[in-house]
Design a protein that fits this description.
Length: 246
C-alpha cells in the first residue's frame, strides 16, 4: 500500500531516543503515514519502544543508510567486503526488530566521494553481497531497495539504468531500486524517462528539491515526475527527504 512519509531529519537533527519519538509523533500529527530513520544502532536505542509507538500511531518505519569505507562491499579487499556484508545483515535485522518495512540507501558501496572509477571485481563483490543481503531481508520480511545517487556520493550506481543492470546481476527478485528526484536531477538526462525505464523495479521513492529545501523552491518539474509515477502504476511509499529542520 502506498504511504506518504517524511524523513526524521525534517523534525530532528539529533539521533536520540527522545528526538526520534518526537519525530514519530510530529509525522503522525501532520498526516504522514511512514517515516524514515537513519540507521539505528541497536545498542543506542530502545527499538522495542520505537516499534510500539510507531504501531500505536499507525506510522510505518523505513530505514536508510550508507556504508562506511571500512565496510564497502564494492571494495576489492575481501575482509572489507565481509565486514560490510555483516553490517548489512545486522541492519536488516534492526529494521525487522523495529517493525520496519524497508532498508534503503547506499547499501552497495560506501557513501563517499570516490576519486576513481569502480572496478569489475568491486561491482561483482557488491552484487554478491547484495544478493546475500536480499536473502536475509526476504526471510525477515524487509524490502531491500538500493538508492541510486549522484556521483559525489558513490561511483557505482548513478543512474536508473546502472541500477537495473545491478539488480539483474544479483539474480534476486527481492532487490528493487530506490530513486530520488534530487539525485536524478543531477544524473539523469530525463528523470521521467528514467522512472518509466525502471517501472516495477522501483521499490521506494524520495521526493527532494534540487536544493533539498522547500518543495517548489528549486528547478525540479514535479508534474513530470508524478505523471511518470502514475504511468507505471507506482504503488509503493513516497517520502519527502530534506535535511533542514527549519
Ligand atoms: Mn534520498
Amino acid at each position: 500500500m502506498r504511504r506518504l512519509g517524511i524523513h526524521s531529519f525534517v523534525w530532528t537533527g539529533g539521533q536520540t531516543q527522545d528526538g526520534l519519538e518526537m519525530a514519530l509523533r510530529k509525522s503522525a500529527e501532520h498526516g504522514y503515514r511512514t517515516i524514515e530513520f537513519a540507521y539505528l544502532r541497536p545498542e543506542k536505542f530502545n527499538l522495542d519502544q520505537l516499534a510500539k509507538l510507531a504501531q500505536s500511531l499507525d506510522v510505518e518505519i523505513g530505514v536508510t543508510m550508507g556504508l562506511p569505507l571500512d565496510k564497502d562491499i564494492s571494495s576489492e579487499d575481501d575482509a572489507i567486503v565481509t565486514a560490510g556484508t555483516a553490517m548489512l545483515a545486522d541492519a536488516v535485522r534492526a529494521v525487522r526488530d523495529i517493525g520496519g518495512n524497508k532498508l534503503g540507501g547506499i547499501l552497495y558501496s560506501a557513501h563517499t566521494k570516490y576519486n576513481r572509477q569502480p572496478t569489475k571485481r568491486g561491482w561483482d563483490n557488491s552484487v554478491a553481497a547484495i544478493a546475500k543481503t536480499a536473502d536475509v531481508a526476504k526471510q525477515g520480511g524487509v524490502d531491500l531497495v538500493l538508492e541510486v545517487v549522484n556521483r559525489f556520493e558513490t561511483n557505482l550506481l548513478n543512474t536508473a539504468a546502472q541500477g537495473l543492470k545491478f539488480i539483474a546481476d544479483t539474480g534476486s527478485s527481492h532487490v528493487r531500486l530506490h530513486l530520488d528526484t534530487f539525485h536524478m536531477n543531477i544524473e539523469e538526462a530525463n528523470p521521467a524517462a528514467a522512472i518509466r525505464l525502471a517501472g516495477d523495479k522501483i521499490g521506494y521513492f524520495h521526493i527532494g528539491e534540487s536544493n533539498r529545501g522547500f518543495l517548489g523552491d528549486g528547478v525540479i518539474n514535479f508534474d513530470l515526475i508524478f505523471d511518470a509515477l502514475l504511468d507505471i502504476g507506482y504503488k509503493r511509499d513516497i517520502v519527502f527527504e530534506s535535511f533542514s529542520t527549519r
